[in-house]
Amino acid sequence: GENVEQHPSTLSVQEGDSAVIKCTYSDSASNYFPWYKQELGKGPQLIIDIRSNVGEKKDQRIAVTLNKTAKHFSLHITETQPEDSAVYFCAASPLTGGGNKLTFGTGTQLKVEL
Amino acid sequence: GAVVSQHPSRVICKSGTSVKIECRSLDFQATTMFWYRQFPKQSLMLMATSNEGSKATYEQGVEKDKFLINHASLTLSTLTVTSAHPEDSSFYICKVSSGGSDTQYFGPGTRLTVL
Description:
The structure holds two protein chains of two kinds.
Chain A: E1 4-7, E2 10-14, E3 19-25, E4 32-38, E5 45-51, E6 56-59, E7 62-67, E8 72-77, E9 86-92, E10 103-104, E11 108-113
Parallel strand pairs in A: 2-11
Antiparallel strand pairs in A: 1-3, 3-8, 4-5, 4-9, 6-7, 7-8, 9-10, 9-11
Chain B: E1 4-7, E2 10-13, E3 19-25, E4 32-38, E5 45-51, E6 57-58, E7 67-73, E8 76-81, E9 90-97, E10 104-106, E11 110-114
Parallel strand pairs in B: 2-11
Antiparallel strand pairs in B: 1-3, 3-8, 4-5, 4-9, 5-6, 7-8, 9-10, 9-11
């Protein structure tokens, strides 16, 4: 089955700096890669996703890159703000269609310091 | 606005009682719903996948007789934790998807504490 590794487990940055979280996956059939942000005591919230037919996607301060050859994808947050502090999870799914199971990474605790 | 709701948001119960958690898809018909469990500072562990009108598919190691899942309509799935014990205390989160999209949305979660 799919195995997703995520690094780092914790990340502290100064407000205004960039943050990068990296994930690798094992199943070459995976073609859908979402990123979720989870604040304390709340459910995860989808912040951005990418499909294997593109190498990069950007939404304001958030961007995701995908390297299918190397089987890794990354989340980039620029101009970080204190409200970006949360746990971020990457995930991978081998098949298209909403009914397919996602395999999650272990999470990254991001802390943006003033 | 919210796409998925869960009820209750938190529940405290005595050991041996059963607890039902509801998950509602508010914006679209959810052909598939997923139930996850998350322990403090850990990742999300998939418990089961439920499709409307059919039996849920449980992940290995998850007792189907203990965690009863009912997906009776395209907008509602319920998870019942039967004979709950303290080790069942966790954050339970549902996730919904429509059949035509990869996009999946999580509910806000339910914090279960079993005394």
